[in-house]
Amino acid sequence: MFEIIPAVDILDGKCVRLEQGKFSHVTVYSKDPVAMAKKWQEKGAKRLHVVDLDGAKTGIPKNIDIVKNIIKSLDIPVQVGGGIRNIELIEELLAAGADRVVLGTSAIDNPNTLSTFCPRFGDKIAVSLDVLHGKVTTHGWKNTSPHNAVSLAKEAVKLGVRRFVYTDIKRDGMLSGPNFEGIKELARETDVPIIASGGISSQEDVEKLRELYPIGVEGCIVGKALYAGKVTLEEIL
Predict the structure, then answer these.
(1) What is the pTM of this model?
(2) What is the model's pLDDT at position 137?
(3) Lower CB density within 10 Å: C or N end of the chain?
(4) How far is CA 52 from the centre of its chain?
């Protein structure tokens, strides 16, 4: 079943949204991320996507207690990303009840870590491909790697990755529509499940992504559109 996954991004202990991954373009939507997470569950969410933006930026998770509190407070699966760059933190989050951890920089900078993580944790690991002009970015979207998203994804699959989160940075937080072609290309070329993110602005966008379920797009992460009231969770579920 195609999943609609609300995003809870945490910066300095607050629930925020960024525009195009820029920390200079922040909108605070709540000072209580746990209450926001509970709200999405109450409105019918079947999974949540939680990101420690401080962790993504610095490599040191700053909001882990809030993340754990969210996991503990909900009855639905929670996938967690942001600054997860070593095996100890993966184990800590899974032990706290996270359903899945999403790796970014550690997987891109040092792909060999995947050959350690993937056999051990299996489908509890997903890799985030944060893409700018076709290239993958790292370190909280500050650095652009030389890697093409599809070629990197193919190599990651060989190392055991079973799921990707694809985000088009240019579209993220801009309500400009997803990068449907980039999403379709990744799904077709890798043959593992893809979660699409970035740019969703309407129920129509969600329905177009839902139509890609047969080729491996298993869900989408919705952030700004929900927080800005462009869509309601009830109408897109």
Answers:
(1) 0.96
(2) 86
(3) N
(4) 11
Answer whether residue 141 shows pLDDT above 70.
no
**Catalytic status, residue 109:** no
| C-alpha to C-alpha distance for 224 and 22, rounded to whole angstroms | 14
**Which position among 52, 130, 168, 172 bears the catalytic label?**
130
Please report, for residues 53, 61, 94, 140, the alpha-carbon distance to residue 41 in angstroms, rounded to integers and kept in the order given.
Answer: 21, 24, 20, 27
Would you list the domain boundaries of the chain?
3-236
Q: Which of 9, 54, 168, 205 is catalytic?
A: 9
CA 100 to chain centroid, in Å, comes to: 11
**Residues 144, 52, 184, 192: is their CA dihedral positive or negative?**
positive
* Range 3-236 classified under CATH 3.40.50.150: no
Query: Which residues 6+ apart lie within 8 Å of 30 measured at CB?
Result: 14, 15, 36
The percent of residues above 70 in pLDDT, for the chain, comes to 99
Tens digits of residue pLDDT in 165-213: 999 988 878 889 999 999 999 999 999 999 999 999 999 999 999 999 9
